[in-house]
Amino acid sequence: MATFLYRLGRFSFRRRRLVALLWVGLLVLFGVGAATLKGPTSNDFSIPGTESQQAIDLLKDRMPQASADGATARVVFAAPDGRTVTDPAGKAGVEKVVARLKTAPQVASVVDPYQAKAVSQDGRIAYTQVTYKVSAIDITDAARDALTAAAQPGRDAGLQVEMGGDATEAMPEQSATEVIGVAIAAVVLIITFGSLIAAGLPLLNAILGVGIAMAGITAATGLFEMSSMTSTLALMLGLAVAIDYALFIVSRYRHELREGRTGEEAAGRAVGTAGSAVVFAGLTVVIALAGLAVVDIPMLTEMGLAAAFAVVVAVLIALSLLPALLGFAGRKVLGGWIPFLRGGASRRGRAGFGERWARFIVRRPLPVLLLAIVGMGVIALPALDLRLGMPGDEVASPATTQRKAYDLLDKGFGPGFNGPLMVVVDGGEAQAAGQRFAGEIKALPDVAAVSQPQANPAGDTAVLTVVPKSGPSTAQTEDLVSAIRDKGGVLKAETGASAMVTGQTAMAIDVSAKLSGALAPYLGLVVGLAFILLMLVFRSLLVPLKATLGFLLTVAATFGAVVAVFQWGWLSGLFGVDTTGPIMSMMPIFMIGVVFGLAMDYQVFLVTRMREEHVHGAAPGEAVVTGFRHGARVVTAAAVIMIAVFAGFLSSSESMIKMMGFALAAGVAFDAFVVRMTIVPAVMALLGRAAWWLPGWLARVLPNVDVEGERLRHLLRDGQGDGRGDGAGGAPRPGEGERELDPAVT
Q: At CB < 8 A and 24+ separation, what contacts does 172-176 make?
């Protein structure tokens, strides 16, 4: 592979105008495709195989007027001191709001609070439930504006009017986070390289790659049913890995230039060595993202595959367009120095921090290893109390109308009114079976109220509402859902009618259960496949084992930090966390996928250089030090860029986005600086040459992918010389590198 990539790098450098034109043509082609093929997105969030989804599908067929999967909004009215919502002025204000809600766009039904007896005992608080014809993600801006405007008559009447529910949540919009991330990346790259030109190439490379990927995903919406959220993860990861991959190749290119090689030869060697690491690092990311399909939630599968496509584009563009851009820049990537920034060059021969850190670890590997593992273990301890859920308005900022509505309902009626359950009775005499089942549910603990069953015209399906005493994200409500489902089995045996629990609260419980159950298989899939891939890269059993165990330590520590801050409330003020609660159930899957991909990037880029030095005859300890000398600076830069980008999400007002940003930033920090740059060199120093041990029979079975470029180096030494020569961007002189490589070596 190294030989093939060497050829590709030289070709792209030499034929840079053609290569650049081809990629610009692809960008235009994909852009035209996006403009012409772009279709409407299907935002149907389904969880196949769960009881709540089966109940919703049944209601769509039997009782479409119920709009079981439609968005909902709870409009809560609170009278000031000395007044009630039942006095003439208050009641008139409430009725005007209800009337306006009934005529709002996309509304299916509105419950009259006085007819439904949705007024608190003291008469101070009332609420109405608004059900929409479409899911929350399909609600238009006009419908949301109408919902907000409908509250004005109530406020004019002197009432406090607040709104909660998924219908009130605006869809995530593209913020300036990506722009801020690019700006931070630019600063870090300038500090790393000390050159504006060298810093600009990875950014240009990343922007073009992300542009092509996003245009391709947009065009695909005209051919496939896709969610509007599919592009979010693709944009974030595509930008991240594209900068990372270009950073490593540009760094290696500058190193080769300083060795005295021509521009074309330096590009070939940079792509042949660092490019090989890019290929395998990209494969690990693709494995992690495509593995999201094991969860069997269509939206997650789409997001994973789209992000994997963006990563593939990032790899391809780094291997072909970047050498072409280097051809245009020539030796200018070494110039353009900025005062006090020397791109990692040592001053007066003094070793850089990375080399000094590596030598410190190599001298004291065991104490460093134990200290790092114990420290990570302590941080991971809170993970033992990890509780997953799909928290809603209860974790919103106290200043938001959603949280105010939640608190008013809690105060006036009890926390369970914020998360009612819908029970669907199907088959036989549904009305009679529903009446019987309602009586059985009332006898269960933690039940505040049960409505009378409402049957469809055919009489074969009935729906009743159960209000728990506990909040929607509590363990007690989860137990209640399980208890109702257990009693449903008895009902089926005795009457032939089946009972299913659904609604937003039950849906959230089922999603959490499904994601929790998929966590171990997902971890096993990505870790197992990556282990095999890393075994091919490093031709070792212990190095991949160390890499995967280190990643699991990162996962545990990250979960611990997230639980401590977002569930226990430690340092919550520092990170702007207003309310604690269960950890969003989707967070672990996303965090594992993203951090695993980036962690393996750092593993491949750092340890590949150690492997290269080892193959070329360096002693084990010296190989570790040399690998750090060449790789620590760029790995640090890549990690700092990622941490800064992810940490930017901490400024979001959305609790879930804040949690994701914290988890990803913490995961990258733990993995890059503790695992890869502390534990890895300590273990490598302790293992010595045994780190590269591979059984003979396995060595014969595994293909030699030559990611460190050993065969390439031998080939160049024997047939092409060392490629040193005449300067920037120049081709080797006749007789130096003109002979074609033997195809057999690829």
A: 172/229, 172/232, 172/654, 172/657, 175/652
> Cα torsion for 697, 1, 727, 318, to the nearest 10°?
-130
Separation between Cα atoms, residue 194 and residue 528, nearest integer Å: 40
Residue with tokens 């529903």: 434
Using one digit for the tens of pLDDT, what is the confidence trace for 259-276? 888 888 888 888 888 888
* Rg from Cα positions in the chain: 30
Quick one: angle between helices 141-149 and 88-102, nearest 10?
A: 170
Contact 268, 305 (CB under 8 A): no
Q: What is the pLDDT of residues 209-246, one digit of tens each?
A: 889 998 888 888 777 766 666 776 787 778 878 888 88
Question: How far is residue 228's CA from residue 234's CA, in Å, rounded to a whole number?
Answer: 12
HEC profile of 183-207 = HHHHHHHHHHHCEHHHHHHHHHHHH
- In one-letter notation, the amino acid at residue 65 is Q
* Short-list 293, 326, 294, CA closest to 202: 326
Q: In this structure, are residues 581 and 567 in contact, taking their beta carbons and an 8 Å threshold?
A: yes
> For the chain, how are helix, strand and coil distributed in percent, rounded to 5?
65, 10, 25
Q: Which residues pair with 280 in a beta bridge?
A: none
Contact 641, 243 (CB under 8 A): yes
The tokens describing 468, both together, are 């728990």
Cβ atoms 44, 299 nearer than 8 A: no
Q: What are phi and psi of 573, to 5 degrees?
A: -65, -40
CA atoms of 226 and 217, how far apart (whole Å)? 9
Burial class (CB in 10 A: 0-12, 13-18, 19+), 82: exposed
- Coil, strand, or helix at residue 54? helix
User: Rounded distance, CA 118 to CA 132, Å?
Assistant: 19
